[in-house]
Specification:
The protein is mainly alpha-helical. The chain folds into three domains: 19-115, no CATH class; 122-201; 235-256 and 265-307, no CATH class. Helices cover 44% and strands 2% of the residues. Residues 77-167 form the Retrotransposon gag domain.
């Protein structure tokens, strides 16, 4: 009889010991009694306390699920993904306070919530459309970065925002002709157009850099003047002297018959001021008188006549 009582007391004591949390461990005894019949490798980056806790939990959960881990196994394996400040936080958790992975995840997010990425509302993408100076490659690269800043969206929403963000160019015309069924289809097609756009631009630059040189006519083959021309001195043409406009040098070609008289031979001189062949414009006293008046009034420099 006494032996039976001793065995019963021993079993009760063992049960009480199992119900007590292990010294220093934040998990309950139930979690610690979980057997590990196999080796499990969690493919997740280390969390130091500076990263986004939600991203880390998602990465850990995906890897643990792929390995077929139970809830208790997730609890025991999670510590392996922590280091530095995150390890210090884990070691300070109250012993026996965590009985499931959801408990651990909640405490983890609450501690490092200041590191969570602040996601913008999806309407933000309506301001991230293609700029006038952007080609497709530049736009799609920037678009991907902007999408990563926004909260989760359904496929139709992000597809609509992408189509509205495009400029009225070849890609937009293609989508008007054949509307994409999904966002992934539209995004894939957009990159195909971007690559074609890059190749076309390179082709144009190559063609522009290899333009055929214009054919140069040799000097001896160049056509000469249709008829011999007499030599004319540069003349000074005065335009609207009453309004004091600028006087400028210009070569003047006389009319075919400067004299205006049929049958009279041209003397070889011509004055554009008097429209006469009695003298050259550069020798005309009337022109020099007008110029002198403009010099005196300050409209022309004092050395203008010397230059003329």
């Amino acid at each position: 009889m006494e032996a039976k009582l001793e065995r019963l007391e021993r079993k009760v004591g063992e049960k009480n010991d199992r119900d007590k949390p292990l010294a220093g461990s934040p998990f309950t005894t139930r979690v610690h009694l979980t057997p590990f019949p196999r080796k499990i490798k969690i493919d997740a980056p280390r969390f130091t306390g500076k990263e986004d806790p939600e991203i880390h939990l998602d990465s850990f959960n995906q890897s643990a699920t792929m390995n077929g881990c139970t809830d208790e196994e997730k609890c025991l394996l999670f510590f392996q993904t922590l280091q530095n400040r995150a390890t210090e936080w884990f070691n300070k958790l109250r012993p026996g306070s965590i009985d499931s992975f959801s408990d651990l995840a909640s405490k983890f997010k609450a501690k490092f919530q200041e590191n969570c990425t602040k996601r913008k509302k999806f309407i933000y993408l309506s301001t991230a459309g293609q700029r006038e100076s952007e080609n497709l490659t530049q736009f799609l690269t920037r678009w991907k970065e902007e999408v990563d800043k926004v909260e989760e969206m359904d496929d139709k929403t992000v597809l609509s925002l992408l189509l509205n963000g495009l400029r009225a160019r070849e890609l937009y015309k293609e989508f008007c002709r054949k509307s994409p069924a999904t966002y992934q289809e539209a995004y894939h097609t957009a990159w195909e157009f971007a690559e074609a756009e890059t190749q076309l631009r390179a082709k144009r630059e190559a063609e522009h850099g290899h333009k055929s040189k214009p054919v140069q006519v040799k000097k001896e083959e160049a056509p000469g003047p249709s008829r011999p021309r007499h030599h004319y001195d540069p003349v000074i043409r005065v335009v609207n002297t009453e309004e004091s406009q600028e006087v400028r040098k210009a070569p003047v070609i006389p009319p075919e018959n400067p004299t205006g008289q049929v049958g009279r031979q041209w003397s070889g001189t011509y004055c554009s001021y008097h429209r006469s062949d009695s003298h050259n414009t550069s020798e005309c006293k009337s022109v020099k008188g007008v110029i002198q008046q403009m010099i005196n009034s300050g409209e022309l420099g004092k050395d203008y006549l010397q230059k003329a």
